Inverse folding.
């Protein structure tokens, strides 16, 4: 029976794009990799980069792979006029690299080659979690959520049940002076609420902000109803900008990681 292991993905920065490699899961027999280009790139350049990455990852791990390419808007780049625009490849028993732009060819190779992958040995440099570890983490998260829910329920119970009940008991059983204090507090709260109802009290900054937000929402909704096509374009533009921003941040994070690793290696060499 194949051991269930959950490997972390590997992200590496290149010139003009970054690549993310996913080792195969327990039920998979091939890896997946995606190239995300941070700038507008010609299809021929994308195809060349995919072929180069295919060789890099096959050389590193030797596991059959399927690759795809994406632009900065998170749209898949169709590099081939014919075919699937997925690049697949594998390593033969003689060490030769074979590639195809038709992913069905990978199915044919895997059908003939039924060798089980020793994931622990192949990906010994990649962090992973076992199925048992994942279950323990999930159980710990669920227990923490239950603890937080119990804490919230306790606060609500005290505020909504214990406090009113305590005030009622004080008024009934407590000494006169304590009952008087409880009565004054209750009357003060009631008076404050009544004053707010009968007088146009000045709204708080929070209430002003809430009212202004609601006014803008009503205004925007009215225009969206009047121009649904324009609203659809606006939504599409917003999604595109968010996708571009995510791509930029991911590339920046990988670049910063490389800088930090370079500094650390430099310090080690100096020492």
């Amino acid at each position: 029976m194949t051991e269930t292991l959950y490997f972390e993905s590997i992200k590496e920065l290149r010139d003009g794009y970054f690549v993310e490699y996913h080792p195969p899961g327990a039920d998979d027999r091939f890896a997946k990799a995606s190239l995300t280009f941070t700038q507008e790139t010609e299809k021929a350049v994308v195809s060349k980069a995919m072929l180069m990455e295919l060789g890099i990852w096959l050389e590193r791990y030797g596991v059959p792979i399927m690759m795809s390419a994406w632009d900065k808007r998170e749209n898949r780049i169709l590099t081939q006029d014919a075919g699937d625009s997925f690049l697949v490849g594998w390593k033969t028993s003689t060490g030769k690299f074979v590639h195809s732009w038709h992913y069905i060819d990978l199915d044919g190779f895997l059908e003939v080659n039924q060798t089980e992958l020793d994931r622990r040995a192949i990906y010994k440099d990649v962090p992973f979690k076992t199925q048992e570890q994942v279950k323990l983490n999930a159980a710990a998260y669920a227990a923490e959520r239950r603890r937080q829910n119990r804490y919230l329920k306790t606060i609500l119970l005290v505020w909504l049940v214990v406090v009113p009940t305590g005030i009622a008991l004080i008024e009934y059983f407590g000494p006169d002076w304590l009952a008087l204090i409880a009565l004054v507090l209750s009357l003060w709260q009631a008076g404050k609420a009544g004053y707010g109802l009968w007088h146009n009290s000045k709204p708080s900054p929070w209430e002003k902000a809430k009212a202004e937000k609601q006014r803008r929402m009503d205004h925007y909704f009215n225009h969206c109803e009047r121009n649904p096509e324009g609203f659809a374009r606006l939504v599409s533009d917003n999604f595109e900008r968010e996708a571009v921003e995510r791509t930029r941040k991911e590339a920046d994070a990988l670049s910063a990681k490389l800088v930090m690793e370079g500094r650390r290696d430099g310090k080690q060499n100096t020492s």
Observations:
- The chain has a mean pLDDT of 84.
- The helical segments are 43-61, 104-112, 119-122, 131-173, 176-198, 205-226, 228-270.
